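User: Teach me something about this protein's shape.
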Amino acid sequence: MRNKKLFKWLILIIGCSLVLSFIWKIPITANNHKGRSYFEEQGRAIWEVRAKEKVIALTFDDGPSATYTPQILDILKQYQAKATFFVVGSRVKDHPDLVKRQILEGHELANHTYNHANFRGLTEEEIRQELRKTKQLIVELTGFSPKFFRPPGGYYNETIINVANQEGYTVVMWSWHQDTYDWKQPGVSKIVKKVLSNARNGDIVLFHDYGGDRRQTIEALKQILPELKKRGYKFVTISELIKMHPNYRYLEWMPG
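Assistant: First, the predicted structure itself:
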């Protein structure tokens, strides 16, 4: 009997909490995690740009790779396509010639940390060091200072975005409908279908050029690029795409 009374009181307390949270619009979460819309409205992070022009941004994470990055660069060159490579500092150090080639061929480099560390639980200082070490390498090799950052695994929170902004970066994620999941090797046809079936102006498409067998990615690109080009799409870097954002001036000002 006593347990039943306790159970009833517990239900009553939970019910009251839900009602109050609805009335006061106070989320019942311990960390009060801020989501996509909050950061997009502030111009501190972007997932895509609602562009009027037929443009699309191809992005590649985790490289460079001595095996796959050159093949991807060859395909991009064949279709006069520019892309943004979110590079990992430790791999930049191992493959400086590939990084220089990416810049020379008109592509953009962005920061994807030094060790591809899991940011869950890292301190602000540890996050800063991951960003700074990679930036230093890119600047030393190319003279180019990256302006964009993508957290490993797409994991973000207010601390990560705050630190990235303070370090001079706009955080760039990807269009939710354009996550190819190529790292899972789902099959060439599935990667192709994912991109072509969902293509919209201002999309940011997520691929990978390191982290496993990327032959499916390469074969998919051979079908995706000519078809999108046939549809009238232009392949742009994140810098080019972000200039079409309605808050472009704010995005440029915010990190500095």
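Now, about its shape. Residues 2-24 form the longest helix (23 residues). The radius of gyration is 21 Å. If you'd like, I can walk through any region in more detail.
User: That's plenty for now, thanks!
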